[in-house]
Amino acid sequence: MATQSEANAAFYKNLGRMYGAYTGTFLGFVVLLAILEQVGVPNKILGYLFVFFTLAVYALIGVMTRTAQVSEYYVAGRRVPALYNGMATGADWMSAASFVGMAGTLFLLGYDGLAWVLGWTGGYVLVSILVGPYLRKFGAYTVPDFMAFRFGGNFTRFLAVIVLVCCSFTYVTAQVFGTGIIASRFLGMDFTVAVYVGLAGILLCSMMGGMRAVTWTQIAQYIVLIVAYLTPIIILSTQKYGLPLPQFTYGQAIADITAREQEMLRTGLATAAGLKPHIEPFINYSPLNYFGIIFCMMCGTASLPHILMRYFTTPSVREARQSVAWSLFFIFLLYFSAPAYAAFSKLEVYTNIIGRDVTALRPWLFTWGELGLIQICGKNAVNLDAAIAACKAIAGHPGVVRLQDFVINTDVIVLSTPEIAGLPYVISGLVAAGGLAAALSTADGLLLAIANALSHDIYYKMLDPNAPTFRRLLVARILLLVVAVAAAYTASHRPADILAMVGWAFSLAMAGNFPALVLGIWWKRATTLGAICGIIAGFGLCVFYLVVTRYFPGHGVTYFGMTSLLNPVTGAPIVDVAKAMAAPNAFDTWVALTGPNAHPLANRVGWFNLNNINCGLLGMPLGFLVIYVVSLVTPAPSKEMQAYIDEIRKPRGDTILQEKS
Prior knowledge:
The chain has helices spanning 2-13, 15-38, 43-64, 70-75, 82-93, 96-109, 114-138, 143-150, 154-186, 191-206, 210-241, 246-267, 287-301, 305-308, 317-335, 338-352, 363-369, 384-392, 413-420, 425-463, 469-491, 498-512, 514-522, 528-551, 577-582, 586-594, 616-632, 639-649, and strands at residues 374-376, 379-380, 406-408, 565-566, 573-574.
């Protein structure tokens, strides 16, 4: 035992040195590939080296940190220091939506896209104030553990598992989808095959070591993703404005975008109806939906099980609080840069693509077009001949790419910016490695959350309480594999764009978890029946609204309450929106025009013109109301339980659930 303790102490003491050496090795690897590019090594080989080198490193960490101890598998032994837990949380948080989709959404929506940044950042304030430290004080392995203890009974645990699986599965599907996009582009694979290749990388990181392996892998992944995200915009900022601080040259880039927008209008490269000024608010989202997204992302952040699980791994409640602060810092590094990334990307598109002769389009564009992610003149840009033919088919086309001729999937903006800007291919490979790290890190955490809930809360707590450690961990690993394959299968069918799927996950978590978590911690009078009814009512309403508005259109459903939409090919307005959208196959027709994952229009609205991403705005208030009313008309919790709640809220004191020896 002493030898093991000494080994653990040495490991934690040398963390800084180990990850410092890892960072230096990674940067050296990037420099080596840059040299190989200069001496003529093909881009495809460089792409393979980037993807497989990083996957190999993550897999190696996962294998080296494998464990057969329950507490290590579920909560990393509760020994992760605050700084490193904050970095792991940052990686867990920096999903494909943040890395790949965030700047793309800001690119497309401009000002309106800031709602996502504000909501996700503000959510960690709620985690710190309302939820995170108190769950760590409770001492659970999973969120359903807390629900079952606080609200007494396995039925509450079961409901919490349902919420966890629904929101986490939606979220992890988006991550696997992101790995498929990256692998298919940079490895030249079919998208479906690429999805399962990405899945293999995810499983190598998490299957053997659980939370212990995921934690140390996520720290390595954060280093890769933040370097990859900042490098292109630092280079572009230096090239254009002579200052390697894109966050501070961002304003000049916005000014240049505005000037270019005016120039495109004067020269006929854009129409007034089709141009969305980058800095004008509430063009894509109504004020209700804009502020609704902010609120849903905040409350969803404080409700997502895979995020809350990270605070179960710290040595103490104090370090859980410190970990939240470090998480905010590491997340801030990327989110502070996302608007700049979008601005520099848009400036490069306006400069290097819009106005270019169709016959002079560069080859990189057709690589994305073959995947159906870039369109020219309404057709997938699979090759130069296809682009030229599509534009010639439009009467009076001038032969140059106009704004209305160019459609790019939002999930491609970040990955393609180095190519749009003409940067060396090694930068594109670096960004791909960063996007892969972001998707893998979040997918690891989500799959672990689902598998742990099913194995710990359903199998161990409800079906076989006497199961030995070996069987518990075996069941957890089998379930991890099953869930991962199911997520890959779903992602292979390209269900929606990454940001939309992530948004749904946040609203589902917000409606199902947030009322019960907050009232369970802060209101001693909340009762078991109140929590059960509140979870069913809030989560049920959210799911109902999401399903109806997404899959059953034509029943009084509009699109963001818009009174006019534009044909993306001709720029002409569609006059009768309600009639057009209620027609059979209208949504499929619109997707055919705007691309497979057209962003704001893919998210339908219904009651009160509320975007379905914001379905949590309906479910969460109902959940709070039902818990409050039902709790008042049912017997109060026992004095012992109320004493436990007081103990959870004390800054000091014993952990409620002590570890079993």
